[in-house]
From TrEMBL:
Residues 398-466 form the Argininosuccinate lyase C-terminal domain. Residues 25-323 form the Fumarate lyase N-terminal domain. Keywords: Amino-acid biosynthesis, Arginine biosynthesis, Cytoplasm, Lyase. The lineage of its organism: Bacteria, Pseudomonadati, Pseudomonadota, Betaproteobacteria, Burkholderiales. CDD domains: Argininosuccinate_lyase. GO terms for molecular function: argininosuccinate lyase activity. The keyword DNA damage does not apply. It is found in: Cytoplasm. The keyword Transcription does not apply. This is Argininosuccinate lyase. Belongs to the lyase 1 family. Argininosuccinate lyase subfamily.
Length: 494
């Protein structure tokens, strides 16, 4: 080998370079490895966030004097054009370019030349991807939050029309005490209200800027991270920029994705519980409600069937979302600092969680509350309530037995004795096949002489409901207060 040898790249090295890599590589990737490592076919959905992040980064690079005005202008122009190309579907995504970031950057350089190559100054794909996922998720959280309000609005709306409708409340799925159907629905409003609050909290930590961490250690360029945070709207309620404070943590943290998926799992668990009730309520044995035909399907063999496919699928999809939570949390458990390629696996579970949640909430808002007519503002097509069937069911199963005990306590009996006395009364009623309210006054007086004619008011479903007139109770007076409070909150979209 001659002393004055000028370096000549091998054919393999040229091939590797063509694929976007440095001369360090002596052979190209096999097609299988390319497919195995590429993420472009799923992470391309981050393109808006990727371009927003790049535009903010380029603007900042110019502001701090790293990028000339001409270069910055060319980058902004190029990225704008790429946005339009992607939007209109003419952009060519290339597997060879691995991911959304390299695809967009390569196109930018093809469009504007050297200025495109300057964009990546002071940046790494590690802080870039972390920023993209956070920006994307932040906006998705806003959409999901709005849908959670829609579902609550639908539930409150149905509740407001069913305050006086009584159904049996269950414990152990055994008839326990009568409750208002509105009260039952408002229980789910409380769940979805907490879900919305939880998502707002997740949003706060998601909306924090990793960019500027570079590969892992920060960068030697004098970047203005606060400016980038402000440009991207990564600020708190007072406009203070929210910036990841440790570069190693910034590029490797996926807590926000796990938290989001955990919050999403709880939303789905609530949806799943509601689904289970809808399915029970619309079964022939209950017949409490009907849902519109468009949310059900027929059977290919049994002509009489109308199956509650939508609530059943929602119940099933809950497992899928909880599975994504398990996937993400396991993804992180063995990772040393800082970025590892494992993190590329955060995207598909996260994307699928968002899609599942969004579709489910949209369907539920409509399935429960129907659609609002743009002209009249009236809702139509939500669940249909069979008040008579609910009330009939509440009259079976001695739902007012506790009320008889409470009645005796008010007459001076210790509660435990009253409880025992009523158990005897229920036994006799069962033997005769009648409700407690159908026993004769003389029969009831045989259990306790303090019982008078006013007992029948206590034994009635309505009397039982009205008696529970304490905060959080099922008395219609309480429910009206709750509905008014929810309506006021939801009108403010909070
Ligand atoms: N596609 C990668 C991901 O989703 C981008 C970051 C790649 N960084 C790297 N050093 N290979 O995580």
């Amino acid at each position: 080998m001659s002393e004055n040898h000028t370096y000549q790249p091998s054919a393999n090295q040229l091939a590797a370079k063509e694929h976007g890599w440095s001369a360090l590589f002596t052979e190209p990737m096999s097609d299988l490895v390319k497919r195995y490592t590429a993420s472009v076919f799923f992470d391309q959905r981050l393109w808006r966030a990727d371009i927003a992040g790049s535009r903010a980064h380029a603007h900042m690079l110019h502001t701090v004097g790293i990028l000339s005005a001409e270069d910055e202008a060319a980058i902004q122009r190029g990225l704008q054009q790429i946005s339009e190309e992607i939007e209109s579907g003419v952009f060519e995504w290339q597997l060879d370019l691995e991911d959304v970031h390299l695809n967009i950057e390569a196109r930018l350089t093809a469009l504007i030349g050297d200025a495109g190559k300057r964009l990546h100054t002071g940046r790494s794909r590690n802080d870039q991807v972390a920023t993209d996922v956070r920006l994307w998720l932040r906006d998705e959280i806003d959409g999901i939050h709005a849908l959670l309000l829609d579902v609550q609005t639908a539930l409150v709306d149905v509740a407001s029309r069913n305050i006086e409708v009584i159904l049996p409340g269950f414990t152990h799925l055994q008839v326990a005490q009568p409750v208002s159907f509105a009260h039952h629905l408002l229980a789910y409003v409380e769940m979805f209200k907490r879900d919305a609050e939880r998502l707002q909290d997740v949003r706060r930590r998601t909306n924090t800027l990793p960019l500027g961490a570079a590969a892992l250690a920060g960068t030697s360029y004098p970047l203005d991270r606060a400016l980038v945070a402000k440009t991207l709207g990564m600020v708190d309620a007072h406009g203070v920029p929210q910036i990841c404070q440790n570069s190693l943590d910034a590029v490797s943290d996926r807590d926000f994705a796990i938290e989001f998926t955990a919050a999403a799992s709880l939303v789905m668990v609530h949806i799943s519980r509601l689904s289970e009730e809808l399915i029970i309520w619309m079964s022939q044995n209950f017949g409490f409600i009907r849902i519109a035909d468009r949310f059900t399907t027929g059977s290919s063999i049994m002509p009489q069937k109308k199956n509650p496919d939508v609530p059943e699928l929602a119940r099933g999809k809950t497992g899928r979302v909880v599975g994504h939570l398990m996937g993400l949390i396991t993804l992180m458990k063995g990772q040393p600092l800082a970025y590892n390629k494992d993190n590329q696996e955060d995207k598909e579970p996260l994307f699928d969680t968002v899609d599942t949640l969004r579709d489910t909430l949209r369907i539920f808002a409509e399935m429960i509350g129907g659609q609002v007519d743009a002209q009249t503002g009236q809702r139509a097509g939500g669940i249909t309530v069979n008040a008579a069937a609910m009330e009939q069911a509440a009259l079976r199963g001695y739902a007012t037995a506790t009320d008889l005990a409470d009645y005796l306590v008010k007459k001076g009996l210790p509660f435990r004795d009253a409880h025992e006395t009523v158990a005897h009364a229920v036994r006799i009623a069962i033997e005769r096949g009648v409700d407690l309210s159908e026993l004769e006054l003389q029969d009831l007086q045989r259990f306790n002489s303090a019982i008078e004619a006013d007992v029948f008011e206590a034994l009635s479903l309505r009397g039982s409901l009205n008696a529970r007139n304490t905060l959080g109770g099922t008395a219609p007076a309480q429910i009206r207060l709750q509905i008014a409070a929810h309506q006021e909150r939801l009108a403010a979209r909070a």
